[in-house]
Amino acid sequence: MNVLNRRPLFVLTQTVVLVVVMMAAASQATGQARTGETVIQKATEQFEDSPLTITSLSQGLYVFSGDGGNVTAIVDDGSTLLIDSGLASRISELSDAIFRTTMRPVTRLVNTHWHFDHTGGNTYFGSSGVTIIAQENVKKELSSAEDVPFIGLRDGHYPPQALPGLTYQGSLTLHQGSRGLTLENYGAAHTDGDTVIYISPANVVVVGDIFSNHFYPIIDLSSRGSIDGMIHSLDQILAQTDEQTKIVPGHGPVATRANLQDYRDMLVQVRQRVKDLVAAGKTMDEVVAALPTKDFDPRWASGYVTPEVFTRMVFSSLAGANGSR
Ligand SMILES: [Zn+2]
User: What is the pTM of this model?
Assistant: First the structure.
């Protein structure tokens, strides 16, 4: 009886869910944010809900995915060096998983850049005496509130223990056991403090959000990110890697150099199309309406950055209209 009584409500709930899903699909197709939800709200919901998964790249080298940006762990005899620290709200789960996997304490943490989904565990690790290492601009970005155009991110003002204690400008070499880590900054790209980490002899490179695998990227115009800078950094990474290199993106599965090349080529083509429209005197809204990413959308628009938001960021980067929304 109970089941029968509940049935109409169940059917109604299913219908409501279906309508909501259809509305979401329709709003995605037009690139409009539904009910004012920002890119960051959508991304945060995904980071809160995704299961934490662990991938082994080689002996003592792991990638933890799901709780924000990818987190890489490199183990030596007595310690673990981490690259990025995930989302603040899931730090207990992440640190437990890291310890269960590596059986070593984390002693050093490298941030690929300042964004909250890559530095969320900084306060936790920094408070436990972990040395935080980053390009010098990361310290500046984490110390002051930043508004990132088009995506609804306002962040900064981290406590002192969450800030990098060791910074560098262009390049820094570290060792973790028998492995060498070369940290490189190729100038502003996704942000003005990006670090690319080459791990040898494992032939692994961790590139942060310069590459989001299968998603349109965020270009952080508030911290001098640019489409030209993204492509410049990608060209440097392509020049330093080979077909066997394992590439750890900021988000999404571990990739190959061929995947990185496809992504770089997509950025180059979108840049050229938007450039041509800007040269023809089109406004930002007219460029968005021209759908310059249309043929790339089936492959790259599945993430939280819609074609519209991506196009607005590329336009602003090329037109120098960094503050516009
Ligand atoms: Zn980022």
Answer: 0.87
